[in-house]
Design brief:
Largest interface: A-B, 39 and 38 residues
Oligomer: heterodimer
Strand content of chain B: 25-35%
Number of helices of chain B: 8
Number of strands of chain A: 24
Largest sheet of chain A: 8 strands, parallel
Number of helices of chain A: 9
Helix content of chain A: 10-25%
Distance between the termini of chain A: 50 Å
Shape of chain A: globular
Structural class of chain B: alpha/beta
Radius of gyration of chain B: 22 Å
Radius of gyration of chain A: 21 Å
Shape of chain B: globular
Strand order of the largest sheet of chain B: 5-4-1-6-11-8-12
Structural class of chain A: alpha/beta
Distance between the termini of chain B: 50 Å
């Protein structure tokens, strides 16, 4: 067991994923054919021996509660601690929170009642198989007040990260910025380690001064004043970040690359768990043609699909064609329909011979339950 | 602790060796044999119980119970982790005066009378751990209660030429049984017993005690207890069940039952309202490469398909390498079929690795279905690259 409480924020970046998070948290966004985003960090924490985890919610969290259930799938249905949903509650001196610090202020007694020495804070946008034991070990060795988990980001596409850092020879942070667009740099994964007592103090201090933004009002501010030493743990494994809708689409397609797929799903001792739905294995029809796809259980695939992510319980009828698509749970593609460059939210029904086309650069999104 | 009274307790006979499944049951009990891509045989009676509102199930184990015990665990995958009732594994145990293995099906229940007594049930349902079917036991129990029977036996209509392989129930018009014949040479009817019995517990209890005292008895329900009840003039009824049901006690029947899951309208549909539950393997979705060819097959999660799969069941975690061909076969979990290897008309056990270019049951010319020779490879075998395994061979 690890000497740390895990805190997962479920609602950060909701706005950037607008259509997809209208009725759900970023944490419960379906990803990779059978998972929800929170499954990754939650499984990582559980696999790393963190047995005391709070998930901070703000709104739209019913789907998240339904998904987590008793948490037995993650082995977190424990007598002592386990997983708790920290639902928002407004008191006379606190409203619905604006940032992570205010959210934590709402859940201050949860933090105060824990007896672990450390806290690991994480957003729910990172998709990776990270071993938090290694992060903690490095944090303790560094002697720094805080550790941020960063990953080398390299792409010809700029991506905005919550935190960017420059390191000294010891791997400690020499310079830091927030909300920075990166091309070839170390980007923060939204994961921080610090002492629980220190966090409680900071949350209280910031609350009276009306500060609520964890990175800006606490980490960056204290660091710039010279009151906080920050170490960076450089995670070199595979990591995907769904900060925006286009990220979400591109990362889904990136999973079709076996190297990325295995980098997330085949890491020894770091199995990713999710809610069990007891679906039957997928049936591939006599004339099915399924190429370069990831397919979950419970589908009936009679037509053709190419370069797509197919969630649980999807039906593709005979003579229907799907290309470059994400089809979430329970979608039905009727005969003769043709789809390209689409993201279909859950339970969308596409009528016979409907043609829908987006592009790889601008995929079109169809909202949950639509009948088109 | 005070036990809640239960209307019905189910007792699942899961102790048989299943020797006709050859190498597939070498180290595991028959009910733990994988089926249908992500299930094990025991999932069917267990899920039927849950879907029929029966929440107290005793599982009688004896042969190679390790894997079965581990699989059933606390019963959570079936919703059988209950404060009152739930699932309980019942192995033979030592007693103060004597201890013994389960001598027969009836003796297994006899040795666990105390388990059943605690729930003071009206009825006890006896189930088998080697049948593939979906059945609403509640309907059978209602029939049992309404007819006022002491014992109700589920029967199904079998072809006359096959009737001599079964225990046959000869019934009156109202379904009451007047005669039971075990594997008759000249069957009078085609009502074959499915090995599913509902007994009024106080009645069965008495007959189990009597049966135990008879040194000549084989302590078997079909051979001893049912005939004894008939002789005593008790009310026995046959309950007709004609939906899909398969005893998967042999290699051929296990292969057939798997094949019955295929097709646009399969002979046996795993889906539908009454789900079959199983312990989940927590694997990501199946990956189908651009080179994959799939036709009429079930493929479970965690598979990686680069080659060709036709008319087959591929369980979770299997890898089919490029150029490999799998046809009319059942691959149990975590099987690897190497590049260019061919697997035809075969059942391949869990974790077996088939080397590059190996040929399993490949060169088989079928004139009709009776010619089909099923090749069987057991669990965790390694078939060398280029190896030739002849049709019908068992490894």
């Amino acid at each position: 067991m690890m000497n740390a409480v895990g805190i997962i924020f479920s609602n950060i970046y909701d706005n950037a994923l607008s259509e997809l998070t209208r009725e759900r948290t970023v944490a419960s966004l379906p990803f990779a054919a059978r998972y929800r985003q929170v499954d990754f960090i939650l499984s990582d924490m559980s696999n790393s021996g963190i047995q005391h985890i709070g998930i901070v919610t703000k709104y739209n969290y019913r789907s998240l509660m339904d998904h987590l259930g008793s948490c037995a799938e993650w082995d977190l249905n424990l007598k002592n601690n386990g997983l708790v949903i920290l639902a928002p509650y407004a008191t006379s001196h606190s409203g619905i929170y604006r940032g992570k610090l205010e959210a934590l202020y709402n859940s201050l007694d949860y933090l105060q009642h824990a007896d672990e020495e450390y806290v690991i804070l994480s957003d729910s946008v990172a998709v990776c198989a990270i071993d938090f034991r290694k992060v903690m070990e490095e944090h303790e060795d560094s002697g720094c007040d805080v550790t941020v988990v960063v990953t080398p980001y390299k792409s010809n596409q700029e991506k905005q990260f919550p935190v960017a850092v420059e390191l000294d020879a010891k791997g400690n942070v020499r310079d830091m910025g927030i909300d920075v667009s990166l091309r070839d740099d170390l980007g923060g994964m939204g994961i921080y380690v610090m002492r629980r007592e220190a966090l409680i103090e900071a949350v209280k201090r910031c609350a009276i001064r009306g500060r609520y933004h964890l990175e800006r009002d606490y980490l960056l501010r204290e660091f710039n004043k010279g009151d906080m030493s920050i170490h960076a743990y450089v995670y070199r494994g595979t990591a995907l970040f769904n900060f925006s809708t286009i990220d979400y689409y591109q990362n889904s397609m990136a999973l079709l690359d076996p190297e990325i797929f295995h980098g997330i799903f085949d890491q020894r001792g770091l199995t990713i768990y999710t809610k069990v739905r007891d679906q039957v294995p997928t049936y591939f029809g006599e004339a099915s043609k399924i190429d370069d796809c990831i397919v979950a259980d419970g589908c009936r695939l009679l037509g053709s699909a190419e370069h797509s992510i197919i969630f649980r319980g999807v039906t593709i009828a005979k003579s229907a064609k799907v290309k470059d698509c994400i089809l979430m749970q329970g979608c039905v593609i009727s005969e003769g329909a043709e789809l390209e460059g689409m993201i279909l939210d859950k339970d969308v029904v596409v009528r016979p011979y409907t043609v829908l086309k987006g592009t790889r650069e601008h995929p079109m999104i169809i909202e949950k339950g639509a009948n088109i | 602790m005070k036990f809640q009274k239960k209307r019905c307790v189910a007792m699942l006979l899961a102790g048989g060796q299943g020797s006709r499944l050859l190498c597939l049951t070498e180290n595991t009990a028959k009910p733990a044999v994988p089926f249908g891509g992500k299930y094990r045989i025991i999932d069917f009676p267990l899920s039927n119980c849950v879907n029929s509102g029966i929440d107290t199930v005793g599982i009688l184990t004896q042969y190679q119970p390790l894997e079965l015990n581990e699989y059933v665990g606390n019963g959570a995958p079936w919703g059988l982790n209950r404060n009152h009732g739930g699932v309980q594994i019942l192995p033979p145990f030592q007693r103060s005066k004597r201890s013994e293995w389960y001598k027969g099906t009836a003796n297994a229940i006899y040795q666990n009378m105390r388990f059943i007594d605690r729930y003071d049930p009206d009825d006890v349902l006896i189930l088998s751990g080697d049948h593939i079917y979906k059945m609403d036991y509640a309907k059978m129990l209602d029939f049992h209660k309404d007819s006022g029977a002491d014992c109700t036996i589920a029967v199904r209509n079998v072809p006359l030429e096959e009737a001599s392989r079964f225990g046959i129930m000869n019934t009156n018009e109202d379904g009451s049984v007047y005669e039971f014949e075990e594997k008759p040479k000249k069957p009078k009817s085609t009502n074959a017993s499915m090995g599913i019995y509902a007994f009024r517990w106080p009645v069965l209890r008495k007959f189990l005690i009597d049966d135990e005292e008879d040194p000549k008895s084989d302590n078997d329900f079909g051979k001893n207890v049912i005939p004894a009840m008939l002789n005593a003039g008790l009310k026995l009824y046959a309950y007709r069940f004609d939906s899909y049901w398969k005893d998967v006690g042999t290699i051929k029947s296990l292969w057939d039952a798997n094949m019955d899951l295929l097709g646009d309208t399969p002979a046996f549909d795993l889906g539908g309202k009454d789900k079959i539950y199983s312990r989940s393997s927590a694997m990501p979705g199946a990956r189908l490469a651009a080179t994959s060819v799939t036709s009429n097959c079930l493929i479970a999660e965690g598979c990686e398909v680069n080659g060709t799969i036709r008319d087959s069941i591929v369980s979770y975690g299997c890898t089919i390498a490029e150029g490999a061909e799998v046809e009319r076969s059942v691959l149990m979990p975590d099987v690897v079929v190497g590049p260019g290897a061919v697997v035809k008309n075969a059942i391949v056990g869990e974790g077996t690795v088939i080397g590059e270019g190996a040929q399993i049951g490949a060169a088989q010319v079928l004139k009709d279905e009776n010619d089909r020779k099923i090749t069987v490879i057991g669990k965790d075998h390694e078939i060398e690259a280029g190896a030739l395994v002849k049709p019908g061979e068992v490894i």
